[in-house]
Amino acid sequence: MSTLPPCPQCASTYTYEDGANLVCPECGHEWSAQAAAAEGAEEARVIKDAVGNVLQDGDTVTVIKDLKIKGSSLVVKVGTKVKNIRLTEGDHDIDCKIDGIGAMGLKSEFVKKV
């Protein structure tokens, strides 16, 4: 199955390639495949911490709220430093390893960049 973008005019998902162009069979709209790829690259997701700083892979952050860990009696305390974070897609957008607890996912709204 191909992952061609939908038509920018009618949002049809039945687009197909015709040489270097993409074509919509429903409305007849044609557009460049390179332009569609460039638009996808520009829509890169920006993840920000609780105060609005942009986060990147490898940053060090501090937890700003006590966080209970589901299925455990452990708690990540306020002020805990988390080094070398990895940004991911999904609800919990930070993957990290916390000393004494292990690997886990955090939400960016509960951390502050150091």
Describe the structure concisely.
By secondary structure, this protein is mainly beta. Helix content is 9%, strand content 29%. A three-stranded antiparallel β-sheet has the order 1-2-3. It has a three-stranded antiparallel β-sheet with strand order 7-4-11, with no helix packed on it. A three-stranded antiparallel β-sheet has the order 8-9-10, with no helix packed on it.
Structural write-up:
The chain has 114 residues and is mainly beta. It is built from one helix and eleven strands; from the N terminus they run βββαββββββββ. The chain has one helix at residues 33-42, and strands at residues 16-18, 21-23, 30-32, 61-63, 67-68, 75-76, 81-82, 86-87, 94-98, 102-106, 111-113. The strands form four sheets. A three-stranded antiparallel sheet has the order 1-2-3. It is elongated, with a radius of gyration of 21 Å.
Question: What distinguishing features does this structure have?
Answer:
elongated, 1 helix, mainly beta, 3-stranded antiparallel beta sheet, single chain
Topology:
Layout lengths: L15 E3 L2 E3 L6 E3 H10 L18 E3 L3 E2 L6 E2 L4 E2 L3 E2 L6 E5 L3 E5 L4 E3 L1
Beta-strand share of residues: 25-35%
Q: Please identify the structural class as seen in this structure.
A: mainly beta
Enumerate the strands of the largest sheet in spatial order, edge to edge or round the barrel.
1-2-3
Shape: elongated
The tally of helices reads 1
Helicity, in percent?
under 10%
H and E string: EEEHEEEEEEEE
Residue windows where pLDDT falls under 50 for at least 5 positions: none
The main pleated sheet reads as: 3 strands, antiparallel
Number of strands: 11
Average pLDDT reading: 88
Radius of gyration: 21 Å
The end-to-end span amounts to 43 Å
